[in-house]
Amino acid sequence: xxxxxxxxxxxxxxxxxxxxxxxxxxxxxxxxxxxxxxxxxxxxxxxxxxxxxxxxxxxxxxxxxxxxxxxxxxxxxxxxxxxxxxxxxxxxxxxxxxxxxxxxxxxxxxxxxxxxxxxxxxxxxxxxxxxxxxxxxxxxxxxxxxxxxxxxxxxxxxxxxxxxxxxxxxxxxxxxxxxxxxxxxxxxxxxxxxxxxxxxxxxxxxxxxxxxxxxxxxxxxxxxxxxxxxxxx
Length: 233
Ligand code: ZN
Fold this sequence. Notes:
Helix content: 40-55%
Strand content: 5-15%
Number of strands: 7
Strand order of the largest sheet: 3-2-1-4-5
Low-confidence stretches: none
Bound molecules: zinc ion
CATH superfamily: HUPs
Structural class: alpha/beta
CATH architecture: 3-Layer(aba) Sandwich
Radius of gyration: 17 Å
């Protein structure tokens, strides 16, 4: 299946946009998520509804959408609670993430995604990594992803292509990309069903979607959506 793709899919805005991007391009698209005792179960709960909604918003999307895989990486949660905190106090960093956040997490995700793509016969791996809004994460950088593509290809003797369609987009441009891909229907699916809030708040609903409205992820999402709306009005 040379045109089969595997999308790293968390159920958030970025990975939902990546799923739409992949469904438009590739004949068969599977998704993978990682469970590592993260933030809130709510994030895992939205996966199914977001997958179905995105596929329905793309012409022929439902026929091209394949299996969803969830890989249990509980060891990542254990690391952040034990080894990484032994010598450092738990504190919130400037970006609002706890300092127990696992360094290089995306390297681990991409390695597991590569192993799964190998087994599933997917040549393309798609991820929502982005330098523009998250310059604090070195494992989201374009150079890091290109290095991982090389490492996966050498280490597994394959010709994977790692795609990062959001790498140079702002949050407002990501909303525009969603509109280009699936029109207002896709924008509505992403706005209403995806969850990016660090606090996993699915109760509070805003014009830009659900979330606490206080955490940095909600702030980025709100600002990006308003910039997108004001540009298209
Ligand atoms: Zn929030």
